[in-house]
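Minutes, project check-in

Agenda point 3 was the complex the collaborators sent over. CS summarized: two entities, 774 residues total, and the question is how they sit relative to each other. Sequences were read into the notes so everyone works from the same version.
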Amino acid sequence: MRDVVIVGVGSTPFGRHAGTPIEQLAVRAAAEALADAGIERERIGSLYLGNFISGPLNGKEVLAGLVADQLGLPDIPCTKVEGACASGGIAFRHAWMAVASGQCDAALVVGVETMTHAPTSQITAALNCAMDNENDGPSGLTFPGLFGLAWRQHAHRYGTSRAQVSAVVRKNKRNGLLNPLAQMGAELSDEQIAASPSICDPLQLYDCCPTSDGAAAVVVMAADAAGGLPRLPIDILAAVQTRGSARIAGHPDLCTFGATVSAAARAYAMAGIAPSDVDLVELHDCFSIAEIIDSEDLGLVPRGHGGGWAAEGRTALGGDIAINPSGGLLAKGHPVGATGLGQLYEVVHQLRGTHPNQVEGARIGMTHNLGGTGVACSVSLLRRSDA
Amino acid sequence: MRDVVIVGVGSTPFGRHAGTPIEQLAVRAAAEALADAGIERERIGSLYLGNFISGPLNGKEVLAGLVADQLGLPDIPCTKVEGACASGGIAFRHAWMAVASGQCDAALVVGVETMTHAPTSQITAALNCAMDNENDGPSGLTFPGLFGLAWRQHAHRYGTSRAQVSAVVRKNKRNGLLNPLAQMGAELSDEQIAASPSICDPLQLYDCCPTSDGAAAVVVMAADAAGGLPRLPIDILAAVQTRGSARIAGHPDLCTFGATVSAAARAYAMAGIAPSDVDLVELHDCFSIAEIIDSEDLGLVPRGHGGGWAAEGRTALGGDIAINPSGGLLAKGHPVGATGLGQLYEVVHQLRGTHPNQVEGARIGMTHNLGGTGVACSVSLLRRSDA
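CS then shared the predicted structure for the full assembly.
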């Protein structure tokens, strides 16, 4: 396998883009990534597109081909991949593989979703496409239900409190205020969080990521072909994809997602680094409690201490490990298929030293994208190439 | 890149499977392919699943993870890929790449679709997800409309007649009669075809593939790891994926699909063979006229002679080139995401010498899977490993 680097990134703001066709959002992010990389379209040898629910919500598929057509790419393989909320991270891993295995010297990967145009009931039904509906449909659980159960279990076992979980919300919403791409940054008090409407007890409104539109894109290249480009190349140390159970009953313990644990272990091994080497992580905080669980599953915070570390500020900018300096899904938004690429966009800017919420001296960054009930997971490790 | 072989295949019958959840159909075909290969689930290092419209028609996504879960596969990367009607062929190419590039020694690929449970209007809307609906939606064209236009142009330029097109229908429907997996084999007369209801002039009912449910699966392995398995390995000489325009206006000539032409050229070059070396092809006859166009685009029949060759019996069993001895999409059916894998299933049995419609002495076989308006295409070339 060849060494592969990220040479360009692009992103639309996450939020509401009502009236913009989904493929146009993707084209916008992709064109920005190509311009950022400073390479010609003719050099792109493969396109991957991450998307989850454009079929049910837009009546549009073959988005990879549509986007390539509108971008004016050559006659190259163009593939949409889907793994629920991990679609973007999975698409990135495939672009990395296409270059690492020598199929092409440069690949473009874009993630996209549009959701805000649809009524809430339709969005909920579409998101539930990520569940095992034959086995779990009769329970009536949607994703807030699943993460509400996980919170109860985490609180019961580790004493995780409302105040600790609120610390995650406050941190991510505050980080989002400084991120121009973020949909819902805010300065919130514990009282405001506690007073927000109940979504699915114990989850309240501010514990849940918003519904979002958006697109993000990354250009990857073989390290030995990336000379002379304008941006500092970012090394891809690891790009890992794992799976867990689709059935809720397939998870004996809701305080952990096995797919995250194994993805992190494989990523550290592949990169030859330890969790303590990671300077920042963009992880999958679809709900506040998810950040706590993910931070433990990734080995960044000791098991059971996710809530405590958040409350003590150890996961804030300047803490032991900066978690979601972008604002995360909670504040930046969660246009599902775009989220994994949006995380990479953020980490690349951190490692270039050009992030509006800069982690000082950031050398190694991580992304973590989790799909469905933990049925699919991707984890990446990136490093400044001059580090 | 390592040499890769097909060591096992499985398929459900194509047709109506009302009441069977889509993931169960996929599991059935995949389990059959694993049993045919005679390998343990623990040896599978990657899963690809081809599917097009389970989101809109079933409210189910993450099918790759769902199927892996129910099959009892280990914690491996499981990815759904989508490229409209070419989803199955694209999934196969990815499984081949996973093994060829050394990521794993064995990969499982399955294609699946269920459609017959949905009302026709919903099926038509779902199939139109494969169009560029922003640009072509206002024309009101559906896929029969597109292929009706192509027929008009082919007839105008080359004199292709109703009788010649009917020869394709008669051949494929007759081939389907001998294929136990086929949905709609029949012995038809020209008069019966001409008397069938008009769907979209000049296309009549028997010119159109039926709506189908079904699943098919293939197990691929590194050639040097496939010793001692029960079946004759089938060499993968080429697995190619290309793209064309998503917009109808992007095709200056509807008598040809550029994505097919370039996929075939690359496949022949990759395999180091000529079109005349191909003993049989399973190609994408979603409509009768499509078989004529595809056979010319693949270089198997001289340009403009597709209709003539069919009428002269040169594309039948025992002719110059056996086209769709399985019955093709017209008779075997077209469960969209499964079709590309179903073609591989058929060609593997031909090359093993175990097909109910055996092409005598078959040594090299081809598959051709075309998506949408020609926006995505995959072509594969297979050979008996003892040939």
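Noted in discussion: Residues 241 and 345 of chain B are 19 Å apart (CA to CA).
Follow-up: revisit at the next meeting once the mutant set is ready.
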